[in-house]
Design a protein that fits this description.
This protein has 13 helices and 26 strands.
Length: 533
């Protein structure tokens, strides 16, 4: 690994990275707008300029060159010496910031980007306290550039990140820089709105308040939000995300850097696919059928009731007539706890991989970002647990057929899907099970046949881990309290098994790893440098 000297201090760098990336990773706060490690380098913002030692043209001795160099465009080289803490660099930064603020409106109080705006931060750290601008500011219009995104052109610093993202990552190319000089601005082609499946990333990329999400606009001040690390629940790819929430309500979802899966990006499907968490139609009351009618059931009474029903169903044949459907929407820990409970009471119970929704083909974009056709986050994890458990197992289709043939006396069926997942024919077949326990987010066609119906918690109200399609086990944390009347799935299964105390995903994984060593190897993405954006 090359070593370079920055402001008199030697640091070790990754080979092949620009100086700017190396110093950001080493903890330096170097201002930058146009540079992003996932995009091509254009060196247009001129904020990251540095001084560098070069051979003197006459003496050939190493000396500070009279001009400044863009650190984003200069690759590290072993032995090189650069500096940012100099009068020349500070003067350049101050002048560049003054140019950026010449036409910028003073609308920070109403701007959604306030609190996480790098124009605000850099103006304070590297700019002037006051403006020398006396002429009227040139004003560009606000533009509606797509169904999900607004462009406030007067705030734009023309860093071109959004343009390069559209060309290089999304491959759609709807955005362009039009006009020249101080009239340059971002715009879409006439009649070609910003509608590609990754378009929401341009809002994350924008270092100022120019590109804004209509979904988040004027919803919340960012300093009131808490960010919880999580994993995408909408597909099997396993993209890592931040859930930004306040007062037990999600306001937005953003990408969390992951060098092995999604890098800096997420799809719009992931970004906007969480709305069902706050759906008023969610189930929020355990119910038990009594004389043909569904009546309220107390959570405290449910574990003992389920144990009794399972013992009765398994008493004659060790559970040959018992099935447990493990939804791929469950976390690995939840699937393990539930299958452990069922097998402890019915050793010959059939463990079933739940319904796996698939929509169209996989989609791969120019730089390798992928949207998975499989719309469940944990099929691979559920299958791994069922395999490790051994004994009878089945696919969901096989379970439906066997249920329709009258094989099962009792079945515990978990759902958790945000969309309709059962056909009427499948529900009728499963409905032939004598004792049917359902655990789901929403009403389904199984409700008319259920003996017990339990409300489930959404992924944002739970903690655990998902195993993605490539076998990567990634933990996620709980962001919200469960809906009133709902108990988190992990806590309920924890109680069913009879484990003491509160359910914790990490502690459960430790117990899992003793029996299934693969679950001792979880993957947590490395954090991005503090001053990178």
């Amino acid at each position: 690994m090359p070593k370079i000297t920055v402001d008199g201090k030697q640091i070790e760098c990754r080979d092949g990275v620009p100086v700017l990336q190396a110093v950001l990773e080493a903890g330096w706060d170097v201002p930058h707008y146009c540079y992003h490690p996932g995009l091509s380098v254009v060196a247009s913002c001129r904020l990251c300029l540095m001084e560098m030692k070069m051979p003197h043209p006459q003496t050939k001795e190493m000396d500070w060159a009279p001009k400044l160099f863009p650190s984003c465009q200069t690759p590290v080289k072993d032995g090189m010496e650069v500096r940012f803490a100099s009068e020349g660099v500070a003067s350049s930064q101050s002048h560049v910031m003054e140019y950026y603020l010449v036409n910028h409106p003073l609308d920070c109080p109403v701007c959604d980007k306030a609190g996480e705006c790098y124009l605000q931060d850099y103006s304070e750290k590297f700019g002037h306290a006051s403006s020398r601008m006396v002429e009227d500011k040139h004003k560009n219009p606000k533009k509606d550039i797509g169904s999900k995104t607004l462009l406030y052109s007067d705030r734009c610093v023309v860093c071109s990140r959004c343009v390069r993202f559209g060309d290089e990552v999304a491959g759609a190319g709807e955005l362009r820089v039009i006009n020249r000089g101080h009239r340059a601005e971002i715009d879409v082609f006439p009649g070609v709105p910003l509608e590609n499946e990754l378009q929401g990333n341009v809002v994350d990329l924008c270092p100022v308040g120019a590109l804004l999400s209509k979904d988040f606009l004027f919803q919340q001040r960012v300093w009131n939000l808490r960010s919880t690390p999580s994993v995408d629940p909408t597909t099997s790819a396993g993209a890592t995300i931040w859930i930004d929430h306040n007062d037990d309500r999600i306001f937005r979802v953003r990408p969390r850097f992951n060098e092995k899966v999604n890098e800096w990006w997420i799809s719009d499907e992931t970004r906007f696919g969480w709305k069902y968490v706050a759906d008023s139609k969610r189930l929020n009351q355990p119910l038990q059928r009594d004389n043909g009618a569904m009546k309220p059931l107390r959570w405290e009474a449910a574990p003992e009731l389920l144990r009794r029903l399972l013992d009765e169903a398994a008493s004659a044949d060790q559970g040959v007539g018992v099935a447990c459907v493990l939804s791929p929407m469950l976390s690995c820990e939840e699937a393990w706890l539930l299958s452990t409970f069922v097998r402890s009471r019915a050793p010959q119970a059939t463990l079933v991989t739940g319904y796996v929704p698939v929509s169209g083909p996989d989609k791969t974009f120019p730089k390798g970002f992928k949207i998975s056709a499989e719309k469940a986050p944990n099929r691979r994890g559920v299958e791994s647990i069922i395999k490790a458990m051994g004994g009878p197992n089945a696919t969901f289709e096989q379970f439906v057929k066997s249920a329709g043939d009258g094989k099962f006396k009792l079945a515990y069926v978990t759902g958790g899907y945000p969309q309709v997942w059962l056909t009427a024919d499948q529900a009728r077949a499963i409905g032939k099970v004598q004792t049917l326990i359902t655990h789901d987010l929403f009403e389904s066609a199984l409700d008319e046949y259920a003996t017990i119906r339990l409300p489930g918690a959404s992924w944002a109200e739970r903690e655990g881990s998902f195993m993605n399609a490539d076998g990567l086990i990634q933990p996620f944390e709980r962001a919200l309290k469960p809906l009133d009347g709902v108990k988190s799935d992990g806590q309920f299964f924890h109680e069913l098994v009879g484990r003491p105390g509160l359910y914790r995903g990490a502690k459960t994984r430790e117990a899992m790893a003793e029996k299934i060593p693969a679950f001792g190897d979880i993957f947590v993405p490395r954090p991005e440098p503090e001053h990178a954006h």
